[in-house]
Design brief:
4-stranded antiparallel sheet, alpha+beta, Alpha-Beta Plaits
């Protein structure tokens, strides 16, 4: 169960994320006729062709999806996501009263993609979505379990981008693909957060002595896992240590001093849960 502080944090993430998504769509993507897939891409196309407001397209396309999803998925998730989609429509409506800003292709792709990606990441971290192709893909997967969610989303987004290519031409389509790449990287960064570190795996003979030296030297705990050398045929121990990047040189020095014959390799770790 989530406490009220967690709920407040989720609400802040949700509102901030939706506001950023609306700003990127209205201030960058729409004026430059940039289609990046999803419902926002459809909204940009319809606005260009027939002047349909962005907020109206977002609302009309999402309402039937959420009605259907309410009877299929977890209702708490659906209600939270429907609130996000409705809030996105509200922000898109309010953005229409904001003055336009001068953009070029680089600004739209880089800053538009970054802002939109950060917005999506914050919404996802709040435990919601804004509907669109991800929700539609989930419904397709429920109706046809043999069709995965990821392939269904990809097909829908590709269809939207191809439609943008037909309406705005190949140059805008290529800019749209680049914006999608920037958006994805920004979203991944927000989802992974700044809480990342290194994991060191140390194969050694004297695990107790090395583990004690590690705890005293860099104030990090260590997990001992039984291991065996295929070449030597000897039983060994493997120490697993999570440490910050700055602590890795000290960990290497400690390992070399305590057990020079140890074998050590280091890799990146993300999404850390627990005290670190």
């Amino acid at each position: 169960m989530y406490g009220y502080k967690d709920e407040i944090k989720r609400l802040v993430y949700l509102i901030a994320g939706v506001a950023l998504m609306a700003a990127a769509t209205d201030m960058f993507f729409d004026p430059f006729s940039l289609v990046t897939g999803g419902v926002t891409g459809v909204a940009v196309i319809l606005r260009s062709l027939w002047g349909v407001p962005l907020w109206l397209t977002n609302t009309v396309l999402n309402v039937p999806l959420f009605i259907w999803a309410y009877f299929v998925f977890d209702r708490r998730f659906v209600v939270r996501s429907a609130s996000a989609a409705l809030l996105l429509s509200v922000f898109l409506y309010l953005m229409e009263f904001m003055p336009d800003i001068e953009n070029d292709a680089v600004t739209v792709v880089v800053f538009g993609g970054l802002i939109y990606g950060v917005g999506i990441g914050l919404v996802l971290r709040s435990g919601a979505t804004t509907g669109g192709t991800d929700l539609a893909a989930g419904i397709v997967n429920r109706l046809r379990p043999d069709i995965g969610i990821a392939p269904a989303m990809l097909c829908m987004d590709v269809a939207v981008i191809v439609s943008g290519f037909a309406v705005f031409g190949e140059v805008r389509a290529m800019y749209g693909i680049m914006a999608v790449a920037v958006t994805t990287r920004a979203m991944d960064f927000v989802m992974e957060g700044l809480n990342f570190a290194k994991a060191a795996f140390i194969i050694c003979d004297n695990a107790p002595a090395l583990g004690k030296a590690v705890m005293e030297g860099i104030d990090r705990g260590a997990t001992v896992i039984p291991a065996g050398g295929m070449y030597s045929g000897r039983d060994k121990k493997m120490l697993v240590v999570a440490a910050s990047r700055k602590e890795i040189p000290a960990l290497k020095r400690i390992t070399a001093e305590v057990e020079p014959g140890a074998f050590m390799f280091v890799t990146d770790i993300r999404e850390i849960l627990g005290n670190f």
